[in-house]
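Long-time lurker, finally posting.

We've been working with DNA replication and repair protein RecF (Dyella koreensis) and I want a structural starting point before designing mutants. I don't trust myself to interpret raw outputs, so I'm hoping someone here can both generate the structure tokens and explain anything notable. Sequence follows.
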Amino acid sequence: MKLERLRIQGLRCLSGSDIELGAGIHVFVGANGAGKTSVLEAAFLLSHGRSFRSGAKEALLQRGASALSVYGEVRHEEGRLSRVGLGREGSRWNARLDGESATLGQVVRECAVVCFEPGSHALIAGGAEERRRYLDWGVFHVEHDFLLAWRRYQRALKQRNSLLRSGSMIADELFLPWEAELSQTAEQIDRMRQRYLDLILPHLAASISGLLPELGELQLRYRRGWTDDRPLGEQLADQRGRDIARGHTTLGVHRADWSIAFEHAPLREHLSRGQEKLTALGCLLAQAGLYASHKGEWPIVCLDDLASELDLTHQTAVVAQLYQASAQVLVTGTELPAPLQGLSAQVFHVEQGRLAPLL
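Top reply, 14 upvotes:
Generated this for you. Predicted structure of DNA replication and repair protein RecF:
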């Protein structure tokens, strides 16, 4: 797939950008703070419904603006064109697909973007939430029933947490239907996640071995969020008193996590910061490769500040892989990265939130 058009209004310093894009590699160059990363952020929003940057959601809104919007035209491999849009005025996102009101899930399903950026090492070194997001985005695009199960689970979790915070005098019978729902949907989600991890493992092994061959073979470790010996519903009932004291549910798929262990680096702490970045990059490339094999088209790949995040050897290897796959790639940098010199690439200059094509 590829973005043929990206229109951005009121996102950070981008007040009225309208960009036409083609196949292959696109480079956005300019000084720090010019707005390069915000272009990638706009594409990522259409695919995830959130930013890859940390911080308050209010920071997305351009200073002095009352609303923001991102619109994209996505061309799929079979020739179909999807017109996707997200707008926000206040705290709520409004989604549109082909000119009609839509759910966020419908928009996200039409536009797939993976992004490697300075914070990507958190996928390896950060908290479990980031890894669950990575996992569930992939599962969402492979398992059609995932979103419904996830919404049912979140509703039951919210209801049980509300009961937990109501105090210890709540009758046990009020918990039972929500714990039964949590148990049923958690089993569904867990099976989908495990199937996805089985599918992505060979892609991970191939992508990471090409980036970090010195670490040896890898192994995926997955923790479902509760023990395997009994159904989740029974464990939730036993845990109820402690959960009341904590005020939230401490078992379930919302507590799951996964990690990568290497033959020569069995613990995360054995990895350097550079190795963490390369492992995260390998995970993102593996996810893109699995998406391509399942959907028949590559997702859009964003590489933010490529030259400062990777050494020249790894920059060259990544660019060569994506170029050979004919993926649409959006890259940022203060100047044209060395591996792209001599390749056919469309270059945009970004200055004070304005974009102008150079080549």
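Before you design anything, note these points.
DSSP finds ten helices and 14 strands in the chain.
The mean pLDDT is 93.
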